[in-house]
Description:
The complex is a heterodimer. Chain A is an all-alpha fold. Helices cover 88% and strands 0% of the residues of chain A. At the A-B interface, helix 5 of A face helix 2 and helix 3 of B.
Amino acid sequence: MIDRLWRLGSGMRLFMLIIVSSGESFRRLHLTIREIYFTGVLSMQIILVSGFFVGMVLALQMFYVLRQFGSPDYTGVVLALSIIRELGPVVTALLFAGRAGTAITAEIGLMKANEELSAMEMMAVSPIARVVAPRFWAGVISMPILAVMFSMVGILGGYLVAVPMLGVDDGAFWSQMQAQVDFRFDILNSVIKSLVFGVACTMIALFEGFDAPPTAEGVSYATTRTVVTSSLAILGLDFILTSLMLTV
Amino acid sequence: MTNNIVEIDNLSFGYKTRMLHKGINMSFPRGKVVAIMGGSGSGKTTLLRLIGGQLRPTKGEVRVTGKVVHQQNRSGLYDLRRKMGMLFQRGALFSDLCVFDNVAFPIREHTDLPLSMIHDLVLMKLNAVGLRGAHKMMPAELSGGMARRVALARAVALDPDIIMYDEPFAGLDPISMSVICDLIRTLNDTLGATSIIVTHDVEETFSFADYVYFVANGVVAAEGTPDDLRNSDLPFVHQFVHGEKDGPVPFHYPAPDYRAELMGYKA
């Protein structure tokens, strides 16, 4: 318990150091842009393909359930609301933790084991400003963009199954969606969720890497912890955020 | 004003379970090559980290150019570190940067020099360690000796006043070892720097060092010029310099009685 509290405190300290060092980091914007490529652009493949299949499966399931109630035209609305409100931010964050989070933890853990971070310190260069802060902001910026892309591709996948394959009316599919999906309540809240997930996932990945014992076993253990802790944090935060958004 | 660029005064340092240093005093005069020697685990590398301000002493102090290292704030510490260059045991080259960019790293971070000047400076540093022709290679393509030389070029990129070497000869073949010995002395004299070398390689170090400290059991066990120490009668120094298996540093790690342990064994 004390160990967990200690780690939580260390994580908060690292977060504060990142915020303080961000100005120094933003002055060298190319570092953050480079990290956006590694965490965001290189995650696009898994995010887009997953989004496409999730949308297709969801459309299939929704169509057969809604047809029993005589409302197959609502497939588009249910699909869009499920993806935008929940699946988009949550599945994107889970995939991000597995793809980019583990890469961040392993990279920083190995840099520590290889004394690269100590070397930077001895060269009077802050590893927080040079290595950690650019990765943090890259994660925070990438996550909402990836979640929006996931949702768009998911809806497109659902459309291809619902309209050409299952015969849902084209006009009803889009017009019902347009009428029922609210920009502030659905889309903006979805972006807020993915921003929070972005902060949580990236912080966990960075902290685990920074805190990893400088051995092969230590880095391997830290990488596993990143996936487990991030996944639990995403699901827990999703419940809290959804409760707040639905009640406030 | 004292001629010592680094002074260690009554320094004690330890971790939770044991004290590593118990009142160490050392001084490092400007322009000299000073070696800190001792067995594995005697806290030699920790001394370098204390000089560089990466660790905080439990008692006593380290002064660099007259300033107490552990009393500096972040910017004061970084100002001191800009006067230092450090060669890490495994080189610690940035694995995502090529040789050229590794050496250029501290120059780019701390100066606003034009690209053409950085280019020339980096090639001059690499030429000094004999690796100008390898400037496009990645760290993974270098041998251990080459990586150590690139790291040395990076350590002296900003012409530091103090150059610290952590086990510069570990794992090197005789040719690379001789090259590194030569480079340490040449760079020290050319740059007018002070070199602090942490090592346990006796012959190589004695061939070029000006002064040597022996650390054992948390204190300075002996000190002097290489000739003094080669002729020393102190049992620890004699054992270390001549590589004797047994002596004040026992061959066996403390253990219960051998016979009793074997006879008492039950499967």
